[in-house]
Specification:
Strand content: 25-35%
Largest sheet: 6 strands, mixed
Number of helices: 9
Shape: elongated
Order of helices and strands: HEHEEEHEHEHHHEEEEHHEEEEEEEEEE
CATH superfamily of the largest domain: Creatinase/methionine aminopeptidase superfamily
CATH topology of the largest domain: Creatine Amidinohydrolase
Helix content: 25-40%
Distance between the termini: 40 Å
Number of strands: 20
CATH class of the largest domain: Alpha Beta
CATH architecture of the largest domain: Alpha-Beta Complex
Mean pLDDT: 93
Structural class: alpha+beta
């Protein structure tokens, strides 16, 4: 079911208001088909970029123009019909220059994705064609706009969470000693695809040591055969029919876990529970992160300096659940959580002395009363034995 025109109008109103407040005449939304770099185009045009690059140009109080790579001329357009003008020029650079010609005079243009997504030749073409125009990075302002999800957007995230829940249910049906990671992944991919999921990101992980350093090695599922005493840890992220990401991860074992494995699972579970309690409107991401670290350290484990992030039409959005510098910049202490935020929390814990690790993930929506977990599956260590599923929720 396509996204509604009322949702389109809500987003365009927010974008127009932002342009008005920041004295910007137009916005350019840069996107490519990398999982974390195409959500801006879908936000403004409901267009799910399937390959190469794509952009939208939106003048204040005007319908956007979508500018795509030339090889996408035959690509299917969204059924929602948000935008009527689709262009597939010889080069995106020339297409962007032409799209701005609709307005004879303009002086300030914000570019969403200028630092990480827009190609250098596209930026140079714009500045060469319009030397009198100030082009600014508008990525941070856009993140503030899209951080608060509407009821329709939250419904889209819930659809995605439902798909992941069914995928995990299939894992619980088939996982056993002797099966390979690839066999499990294939079944989960199948369920996700049948239920309308797209762009799956499926990783499996296990503990490896290098001298005194202990790490959770992760990557796509391969031919590693699971044994009775192995811990199968997966991380599954997927886009639902409306384009929203959610994330789910659990630790699964077969034989009774060792004391250290049990402790790592308990540390992760306690960290997730601490985040769930602290994620309330008005809380800072750093406060949430400190609560996560305190819970994990109470089990004699350590964790990285960030434990989660916002997500939506992109798999990584702002704000991040961390202390200071997170990935691509410094996060302000003034960034407070608000109702309508959608967040994934995924502490990675380790104990170098015991040479063991742990990892799980849940997706949450922030409501006026606090956080709400989207998955129906309990958070904890899953043990599959004698045809039964046992969960230690600690």
């Amino acid at each position: 079911m396509p996204n509604s025109l009322s949702e389109r109008n809500r987003r365009w109103d927010l974008l127009n208001k932002s342009m008005q407040e920041n004295d910007v005449d137009a916005l350019i939304f840069a996107a490519n088909d990398y999982r974390g770099h195409k959500g801006a185009l879908r936000y403004v045009a409901d267009y799910n970029l399937l390959h190469r690059s794509g952009n939208a140009v939106m003048f204040k109080d005007e319908e956007p123009v979508v500018v795509l790579s030339g090889n996408l001329v035959g690509a299917r357009k969204p059924a929602s019909g948000w935008v009527s003008d689709y262009r597939c020029p010889g080069t995106i650079a020339s297409g962007l220059v032409d799209a701005l010609k609709r307005r004879k005079t303009f002086s300030r243009v914000g570019i969403i994705g200028l630092g990480q997504i827009m190609k250098v030749d596209e930026y140079l073409a714009l500045t060469s064609a319009y030397p009198q125009v100030e082009f600014i990075d508008y990525s941070a302002q856009f993140e503030l706009i899209r951080a608060i999800k509407s009821a329709a957007e939250i419904q889209g995230a819930q659809e995605s969470a439902y798909i992941l829940d069914q995928c995990f249910s299939r894992l619980l049906e088939i996982a056993r000693p002797g099966i390979t990671e690839r066999e499990i992944g294939a079944e989960m991919y199948k369920v996700g695809h049948m239920l309308g999921g797209e762009d799956p990101l499926f990783l499996t992980m296990y503990t490896e040591t290098d001298g005194d350093q202990t790490n959770a090695t992760f990557g796509p599922p391969r031919d590693r055969v699971l044994n009775a005493h192995d811990v199968h840890t997966f991380s599954f992220e997927i886009v639902g029919p409306k384009g929203y990401w959610t994330e789910l991860s659990r630790m699964v074992t077969f034989a009774p876990p060792t004391d250290d494995t049990d402790r790592m699972a308990r540390a992760v579970t306690k960290g997730l529970a601490a985040a769930a309690r602290e994620m309330t409107p008005g809380a800072s991401p750093s406060k949430v992160q400190r609560a996560v670290l305190h819970a994990i350290e109470s089990e004699g484990a350590s964790s990285s300096y960030w434990s989660g992030h916002s997500l939506g039409l992109d798999v990584l959005e702002h704000p991040w659940i961390g202390l200071d510098v997170v990935e691509d910049g410094t996060q302000s202490e003034d960034t407070m959580l608000q109702a309508g935020y959608l967040l994934a929390v995924h502490p990675m814990v380790r104990d170098d002395a015991a040479k063991t690790t742990g990892y799980m993930a849940d997706s949450f929506v922030i409501e006026d009363s606090g956080s709400r977990k989207l998955s129906e599956h309990a958070t904890g260590l899953y043990r599959l034995s004698k045809g039964e599923v046992n969960v230690n929720e600690y």
